[in-house]
Design brief:
Elements (H helix, E strand, L loop, with lengths): L8 E4 L4 E8 L5 H12 L8 E10 L1 H10 L7 E3 L2 H12 L10 H39 L6 H13 L2 H25 L5 H41 L1 H7 L4 H40 L3 H11 L2 H27 L5 H32 L4
Parallel strand pairs: 2-3, 3-4
Antiparallel strand pairs: 1-2
Helix pairs in contact: 1-2, 4-9, 4-11, 5-9, 6-7, 6-9, 7-9, 7-11, 7-12, 9-11, 11-12
Length: about 375
């Protein structure tokens, strides 16, 4: 005998008889329904039993479907039930239910990967088209300098370049301190603490400064650019801009691309200074390398070309962040869910492209002998 805490119950009677009682309806708790289905399904050949439903108080399509599945979609040889309950089983006999879908996890995984790949390729294609449109806008600005959006460019330089200075300064200083501690411990074991100057200078100027600034600005400014332009679809400003004959790429994308391309290299320099200051301070306190000596030896230990390479990376990362942010903002659908999705995609694509460009530039510079 098995008894559930619900109103639906069953018990094994004399001989091969199953007696049901209570209410077998849709109101049955889902977990109790699953428990009843599991208990009845564990019977050996359920259709060979005699099923007595005379004591069932209520039966609807959900309860009948539970028993129908237990009976493997065929009526048992012996079934006793009330006349008003029997029509449910006749209805189930005459109804064709589609077979449950067979889970194909591998096919679904491959389809999701293909869709993600196509989406990435589509985004790259759209960004390239935006670059072409911006080149046309630049030519138009050269022909008629009055249309150059100076005010928007200045606003972008402030929002992208000036606003995050405190954040980048703190992050750069902290990374400089951590790097000096970690590298200094190893150098002290070999009795060469002075090498901290060359290692810090090369790593910060060439790699860490541009990458740190790029990654932080991709999350901060890239998402802000996408959300700012995308929200114009919600308020109708984007359509109004086009209705008045203004080019969205000229008024929205071009100032942001120019502003970010100017601002990010300057932020790279700021981040470099903060990281090197953290390294010099840690070197004096932890390694006994004076900060004056650090500043004197730094230009002698690190070639100036590394500084210019960092600036070039900053300009490339700034242009990438702005282009990606503008593309996803201009293609955002006019609803909050779509805007949220495009903002997330903007950050993900920006971070991915920054890392790809950084790795590619490292490999390229190595082959030309600059690394």
């Amino acid at each position: 005998m098995a008894d559930t805490p619900t109103d639906a119950r069953w018990q094994r009677g004399n001989g091969a008889e199953i007696r049901l009682s209570g209410s077998w309806t849709l109101l049955l708790d889902d977990r109790r329904r699953q428990r009843l289905a599991r208990e009845l399904g564990e019977l050996d050949a359920p259709r060979n039993y005699g099923w007595n439903l005379k004591q069932v108080d209520a039966l609807d399509s959900a309860g009948a479907r539970l028993l129908w599945d237990v009976w493997d979609r065929q009526l048992p040889d012996r079934l006793e039930c009330q006349d008003d309950h029997r029509h449910w089983f006749r209805w189930l006999q005459e109804t064709h239910f589609p077979a449950p879908p067979v889970p194909r996890r591998l096919d679904e995984a491959i389809e999701r990967v293909l869709q993600a790949g196509l989406g990435f390729v589509r985004a790259i294609g759209g960004i390239l088209l935006l670059i072409g449109q911006l080149l046309v806008d630049v030519a138009w600005c050269v022909r008629d300098p009055r249309v150059i959006p100076w005010r928007e460019i200045a606003a972008t330089i402030y929002h992208v370049g000036a606003a995050p200075m405190l954040l980048l300064g703190l992050v750069g200083f902290a990374i400089g301190v951590v790097m000096a501690i970690q590298i200094g411990m190893t150098l002290q074991q070999f009795g060469a603490p002075m090498m901290i100057i060359q290692m810090m200078g090369l790593a910060v100027l060439r790699e860490l400064g541009p990458v740190i600034a790029g990654l932080i600005l991709a999350g901060r400014s890239g998402s802000a650019i996408t959300a700012g332009i995308g929200s114009m679809h919600l308020t109708g400003e984007y359509d109004a801009l086009r209705a008045f004959g203004s080019s969205p790429s000229l008024r929205l994308a071009l100032p942001r691309v120019i502003g970010a391309t100017i601002s990010v290299p300057l932020l790279v320099v700021w981040t470099d200074i903060a990281a090197l200051f953290g390294g010099a301070l840690t070197g004096q306190l932890d390694l006994g390398v004076g900060y004056k000596l650090f500043l004197i030896r730094l230009p002698q230990s690190v070639q100036i070309v590394n500084f210019w390479i960092g600036l070039g990376k900053g300009a490339l990362f700034g242009m990438t962040i702005a282009l990606v942010g503008c593309y996803f903002g201009m293609t955002a659908p006019p609803d909050t869910a779509g805007l949220s999705r495009n903002t997330t995609l903007s950050v993900v694509v920006s971070l991915t492209l920054i890392l790809i460009f950084d790795a590619s530039s490292g490999a390229l510079l190595t082959h030309v002998g600059l690394l």
